[in-house]
Write a structure and sequence with these properties.
CATH class of chain B: Alpha Beta
CATH class of the largest domain in chain A: Alpha Beta
CATH architecture of the largest domain in chain A: 3-Layer(aba) Sandwich
Strand content of chain B: 5-15%
Largest sheet of chain B: 5 strands, parallel
CATH topology of the largest domain in chain A: Rossmann fold
Largest interface: A-B, 25 and 32 residues
Distance between the termini of chain B: 13 Å
Largest sheet of chain A: 7 strands, mixed
Shape of chain A: globular
Distance between the termini of chain A: 42 Å
Radius of gyration of chain B: 17 Å
Oligomer: heterodimer
Order of helices and strands of chain A: HEHEHEHHEHEHEEEHEEHEHEHH
Order of helices and strands of chain B: HHHEHHHEHEEEHHEHEH
Number of helices of chain A: 12
Chain lengths: 309, 265
């Protein structure tokens, strides 16, 4: 997603001189295409994320569209108050780009995981929150939203190769993307872990579970009506996100169920609590936290069985 | 003209603080002369919506009442609007709020304004505009690490069109800066980071004007005025007294404060 994002930005910047790219000293082997094509619009501000967002606020007020780039927790959590008091309060077109949501930075440990970014960003009114599922969708999402008048947060995965079959770059603000239609179970996935959800859906179908799968990449504005319609038609729902269970996609879906007075059984798949200091590959961690396709199938089968009792 | 503006700012600060029965009086009096110099002619703003105006960030947002007074004196706020200060539904709060005519950037959380002003200065450079960006900081804001991130960035990029003013009154919310977290030697610290630093008397309007007029906004280092000020300047019982960071005035205190401010030279 990272390279797709940067390539899209290079192309947009060629068309629109308002686009700037700021990084807090991250993006090695990722940002070079922009640096080479638009050196006068690229700023490495040093390891100073708060200042980066403050600068972007001043730049955006003067008419620029600054993209600020770092790894998710450094892009979101360190300068969070600057984001709130700057682009959010002033309704300015600053783009916060967080790379590597969830557990993508595996062996780098908790400091590098993005596990609460969606929760805190979706709490901010007027901040568009976008979490693409794969590289083509990242490209589609940036192309559809780069010119929005207000601030945007993009949670961009590191992996450019993994593809969600059938998604084909589709993205629409405030909409879900449908990938599979069934009746026993609804899988709702957000972000790069959607590839695991897609594999799980295939396996569940092979086991005779009639299963729907949708992607939520437009977290804010949330596809509330579409979700409500889907939730009303399915007795069991699994949300799949590489994020803490609190505050992210699972919470969003729970809000829709509660506010629309729907009756379905919700299982929030996400990181419940962190095991003290244990790291490993993303694959290992997904297995550990129940987010691998294999674990999702187990959870889904158990939930469907329980529902039929 | 600026002397008279400073006196009027002080009078309005007292009147509005008394009417609304709120504090932050000492901080507003501390910056009254600095604000008079900025709004009395230094800031190039004919219309607060003109994109080519100089930008100003009151990074020490809690002194906003002095700026409300200046916005009124410039004719950008009416007396009726000024009289809504701290009232329900008013844009005129304790700190600069988004949406108030004449406010370029909201503030209130210390340590954020210099970054925003540096962004405004960088924008002017990228757009080949002669406009400048000013930020008025408190001395205690130099406790904030993020202030120094902006200090480093502005020096590295030689943002000569960025002008910071530090209101060095030596006091913060719970004590004197020397006791809370020493800033000494403050001007040397800014110089060591690559800034063009000037130590000035923050109540000497002629000296402030002369120093600001002598800064080159086109080439070289960013500029900082380390402005020595007296907290509560102009009201004898407030000067240097920590309690006037938050305290409102009684009727007797208000009467004395008004008399003293009117009698200022």
């Amino acid at each position: 997603m990272r390279q797709a994002f940067v390539q899209t930005l290079v192309e947009l910047a060629a068309r629109d001189p308002r686009i700037l790219l700021l990084t807090a000293d991250l993006g090695y082997l990722a940002l070079e295409p922009f640096m080479e094509k638009h050196p006068d619009r690229f700023f490495n501000v040093g390891v100073a994320e708060q200042n980066m967002v403050g600068l972007a606020t001043g730049l955006a007020e003067a008419g620029f569209i600054p993209y600020v780039y770092s790894i998710v927790p450094f892009a979101v959590l360190r300068p969070y108050e600057f984001i709130r008091n700057g682009p959010v309060q002033h309704r300015l077109p600053v783009r916060i780009v967080g790379v590597g949501g969830g557990l993508e930075y595996g062996t780098n440990g908790l400091s590098h995981y993005g596990l609460e970014d969606i929760a805190v960003m979706r709490a901010q009114p007027g901040l568009t929150v976008i979490a693409p599922a794969d590289a083509p969708q990242a490209r589609g999402a940036v192309a559809a939203t780069w010119n929005l008048p207000g601030p945007v947060y993009y949670r961009i995965g590191k992996d450019d190769k993994a593809i969600v079959p059938g998604l084909e770059g589709r993205f629409e603000l405030g909409k879900v993307q449908h990938l599979r239609e069934g009746s026993d179970l609804l899988l709702i996935a957000m972000g790069a872990v959607a590839t695991e959800a897609a594999t799980a859906a295939q396996e569940l179908a092979a086991r005779g579970v009639s299963c729907s799968l949708v992607i939520v990449a437009s977290v804010t504005p949330a596809p509330v009506d579409e979700l409500a319609g889907l939730l009303a038609r399915h007795p069991v729902v699994l949300t799949v996100e590489a994020h803490y269970r609190v505050g992210g996609l699972g919470s969003l879906v729970a809000e829709v169920i509660a506010e629309r007075d729907l009756r379905c059984h919700l299982v929030r798949c996400g990181v419940g609590s962190l095991l003290n200091g244990i790291t490993g590959s993303q694959r290992y961690l997904h297995q550990l936290y129940g987010l691998s396709a294999e674990k999702l199938v187990e959870t889904a089968m158990a939930a469907v069985r329980r529902n039929k009792l | 003209m600026m002397d008279s503006m400073a006196r009027q700012i002080r009078r309005i600060v007292l009147e509005q603080s008394k009417r609304a029965n709120v504090g932050h009086i000492g901080s507003a009096l501390s910056v009254a002369d600095l604000v008079a110099v900025l709004y009395g002619g230094v800031l190039r703003v004919s219309d607060p919506k003109d994109p080519q105006r100089d930008r100003f960030v009151l990074s020490k947002g809690h002194a906003m009442l002095a700026v409300h007074a200046a916005l009124f004196l410039r004719g950008w706020l009416t007396q009726e609007e000024l009289n809504t200060y701290c009232g329900d539904g008013s844009f005129l709060g304790v700190h600069p709020e988004y949406g108030l005519r004449g406010v370029d950037f909201a503030a209130g959380s210390l340590g954020q304004g210099l970054s925003v002003a540096a962004g405004a200065a960088l924008a002017a450079r990228l757009q080949h505009s002669p406009r400048r960006a000013f930020a008025l900081l408190s001395d205690a804001e130099c406790n904030e690490g993020a202030t120094w991130e902006a200090v480093m960035f502005a020096a590295h990029h030689k943002l000569a069109n960025l002008i910071a003013i530090v209101d060095l009154n030596g006091q913060q919310a719970l004590g004197h800066t020397d006791q809370v977290l020493s800033l000494r030697p403050l001007a040397e610290r800014w110089r060591a980071f690559g800034w063009d630093a000037h130590e000035v008397d923050g109540h000497d309007i002629a000296a402030l004007q002369e120093t600001l007029a002598g800064l080159d906004p086109a080439v070289g280092a960013p500029h900082v005025l380390i402005a020595r000020t007296t907290f509560g300047k102009g009201v004898s019982y407030m000067q240097g007294q920590i309690k006037w960071h938050y305290w409102p005035m009684s009727d007797a205190e208000y009467g004395q404060a008004l008399r003293e401010v009117e009698a200022m030279p």
